[in-house]
Amino acid sequence: MDIAIIGASGFTGGDLIRLLLLHSKAEVTCATSRSEEGKPVSSVHRNLKDLTDIKFTNPDIENLDADFAFLAVPHTAAMKYAGQLKERGIKTVDLSADYRLSKDIYESTYGVEHTCYFEAPYGLPELHREVIKGADFVANPGCFPTGATLAAAPLAKLAHTIIYDSKTGVSGAGVNPSKTNQYTNVADNLTAYKWTSHRHLAEMRQEAKFLGSSAKCHFTPHLLPVNRGILTTAHILLNEPLTQEEVEKLYQDRYKNEFFVRLQNPSLGGVRGSNFCDIGVESEGTRIVAVSAIDNLVKGASGQAIQNMNIMCGFEETDGLRFGPVFP
Ligand SMILES: NC(=O)C1=CN([C@@H]2O[C@H](COP(=O)(O)OP(=O)(O)OC[C@H]3O[C@@H](n4cnc5c(N)ncnc54)[C@H](OP(=O)(O)O)[C@@H]3O)[C@@H](O)[C@H]2O)C=CC1
Ligand SMILES: CC(=O)N[C@@H](CCC(=O)OP(=O)(O)O)C(=O)O
After folding, report:
1. Which end of the chain, N or C, is less packed with Cβ atoms under 10 Å?
2. Which residues of the chain carry a pLDDT beneath 50?
3. Are residues 38 and 99 in the same domain?
4. Structure ipTM
5. Angle at which helices 303-313 and 11-20 pack, to 10 degrees?
6. Does the keyword Ligase apply (predicted)?
7. Which CATH number is 227's domain given?
8. Alpha-carbon gap, residue 312 to 92, rounded angstroms
């Protein structure tokens, strides 16, 4: 199956190419970048030298010759390509935020008009696998909402409040340098940002609601001086207390058939480079602390996008993704 990656010179585009090298049925035949047009992919993604010989091209959906596409471009750019891909019948996973929310919530959260809106399944397979199966366009979740929602899902319905406290690696900010992600701000440092107003809160609330929860959700992200990974501590405040045994059973039951969710003490090093989400949970009666760890570029983006492609195309769900994290 021929794959096109729109926005292939960025961090998620690079990881899509790297991961798809391992896929048994997919081959990347088109990788776009406007700024790197004509250059070999491996001259930008140097980790891929001698592993791919394709060159960057300009995005041109009208003449695109591919069976499947990934949109790995910033939000608001994705909506410029999505309609055309749909019209051309090219199945697509969009890694941006453009199709994750309802139109009105998207517009109020992102402060822009959505010029090409249609509904798409929210691509968190552990919650939405059945609707992803029949879809031709899937909205890949945000990195923070992936780790946060998986951490709280087994208890969401029983909670009155959920507080997500996340620490993220810097690659979450994309490849372009900025004041926030420059070395002097990040190295040897730890800061909170968008303390009460991060745009991913809308996704977390949407998914809590989907799980039948009426809990109030809150979220504060922190920038950590590492390249990859998100560790989320979810404080789940319950109406009625649960024992440690009861809580563990709820998590085991919920995730017993989920290959990419592992119940063990989570750490960034324990999932780095892989599509796993590791979750640990501890009860303090009416306060349950659930901690999750993901690699933001893999389960938080490109790996989950391939997991969604596998489900959409009827492939083995773990194809291209069945490998261990890099540790130490
Ligand atoms: N980084 C992460 O951890 C995560 C990212 N995401 C989302 O995935 C998407 C990609 O993220 P990331 O790889 O980090 O972003 P980067 O900024 O690293 O890369 C963006 C890519 O999109 C291309 N691009 C930018 N603007 C346009 C445009 N208007 N039209 C066509 N191509 C464009 C760029 O190349 P060029 O400008 O040369 O064309 C580049 O290849 C974003 O929507 C991001 O929010 C989601 C989850 C996690
Ligand atoms: C460190 C950092 O800046 N992280 C980004 C993560 C967002 C992201 O990548 O998710 P989207 O797909 O919704 O853009 C942020 O906090 O905005």
Report:
1. C
2. none
3. yes
4. 0.98
5. 50
6. no
7. 3.30.360.10
8. 9
Sheet with 56-57: list strands edge to edge: 56-57, 27-32, 2-6, 68-71, 91-94, 137-139
pLDDT in tens, 68-102: 999 999 999 999 999 999 999 999 999 999 999 99
Instruction: Identify which of 251, 238, 230, 233 has the alpha carbon closest to the alpha carbon of residue 164.
Output: 233
Whole-number Å distance between alpha carbons of 328 and 286: 36
Q: Single out the catalytic residue among 30, 116, 143, 313.
A: 143
- Whether 41 is in the pocket of ligand 1, judged by its Cβ within 6 Å, is no
Number of folded domains in the chain?
Answer: 2
Same-domain status, 163 and 274: yes
Q: What pTM does this model have?
A: 0.98
In this predicted structure, what is the pLDDT of residue 244? 98
Peptide linkage before 141 cis (omega within 30 of 0): no
Residue 143 known to be catalytic: yes
Which ligand has its closest atom nearest to the C-alpha of 34? 1
Q: What totals of helices (H) and strands (E) does the chain contain, helices first?
A: 10, 12
Q: Kindly give the pairing relationship between strand 159-168 and strand 230-242.
A: antiparallel
pLDDT per residue as tens digits for the range 257-293: 999 999 999 999 999 999 999 999 999 999 999 999 9
Yes or no: say if 91 and 313 are a contact pair by the CB < 8 Å rule. yes
What the block records as the tokens of 109 is 């959260």
Please enumerate in sequence order all residues whose Cβ is within 8 A of that of 207, keeping only pairs 6 or more positions apart, or say none.
Answer: 122, 124, 127, 145, 149, 153
For residue 171 and ligand 1, the question of a CB distance below 6 A is answered with: yes
